[in-house]
Protein: Spermidine/putrescine import ATP-binding protein PotA
Organism: Streptomyces racemochromogenes
Amino acid sequence: MTDTTASGDVRLAGISKHYGSFTAVHPLDLTIPQGSFFALLGASGCGKTTTLRMIAGLEEPSTGTISLGEREVTHLPPYKRPVNTVFQSYALFPHMDIFENIAFGLRRRGITSVKKQVDEMIDLVQLGEHARKKPHQLSGGQQQRVAVARALINHPQVLLLDEPLGALDLKLRRQMQLELKRIQTEVGITFVHVTHDQEEAMTMADTVAVMNGGRVEQLGAPAELYENPRTTFVANFLGTSNLIESAVESAGSDVAVSASGTTLRLPAARCSTTPRTGGKLLVGVRPEKISLVPAEEEHTIAAGRNKIAGKIADSSFIGVSTQYVIDSPVCPELEVYVQNIERDARLVPGAEVVLHWNPEHTFGLDADQSIS
Ligand code: ATP
């Protein structure tokens, strides 16, 4: 068999981690392409930090091998691996100025003429005017940039980032997400970023691995994960999904299902499981894909759309859109987000409405999974 691993890919083969009888990471096969921005995303305790620490060499895997390109590094100590890690606590040296913090890795290697390289790094992270300040004179976001510059100064093959923005407030975190993305694009080094924040992963990463209970549930580009979740966990962890229990009426390239007497359609290609007539399917649709009309306007809905009748249970104005909760025999609490441009004074709690959406925007999940 030909090995298709590119020269600098990170490859985990059968990597697992046990702590006594507890399995933090189940055997995992994962290839992280060279030069990509890769996110390990999941709730607290799902094993993402453990996975990152195994790549860093800070944890010994219980099974499996880790390679960087052609080189197996499974048992190499951290300092012998061409990787570096940025932690949430910036861990800057408080008594050194920014220039010296960044220069540290070079000086430790015995390099004395550091100015050109450090200046380049300071430019990269846009801290030119702060070079001679001490860490405590910088904001949290600026300190985090110093930590990134310090980790990049020795040109690692892979930069590991463990919740690096976790200590920042929301606005700063958003700015730093874009900043880190820009830096990664500029330096072209593989970034592996651990986060529990789905929006952060979606904003920054080319590829996201969604972890749950020590396993990768799904791997893909952010839009692909959002549009085509393969499990209920992914459907609920990335954004909001309306999940409707249904029975399959007919299965072909187009699938028809029945939910409490209402027929809905979806393409078989958007199902994570092969639908079988008479079998069960969880049918999903994102709240922003749904349109809403008062019941008396049902005749205005184009043919071929999926339709559900219901009653508005609640509505909340959230700036750019209004969020409705709809009670329907088909599903007790359907969520719908409507852009405010379409706001309609008749859409108030208690109003009879019809929801409708394009069948192409419907996905199907295995109904035997529990809804998490
Ligand atoms: P968080 O976002 O909270 O850091 P995580 O997804 O990164 O969570 P890990 O830190 O990888 O999760 O931990 C995965 C599981 O392994 C958790 O249940 C954790 O309690 C357990 N664990 C981690 N380190 C150890 C250890 N040294 N000894 C025993 N159990 C551990």
Summary: The domain at 234-366 is CATH 2.40.50.100 (OB fold (Dihydrolipoamide Acetyltransferase, E2P)). Confidence is low (pLDDT under 50) at residues 1-5.
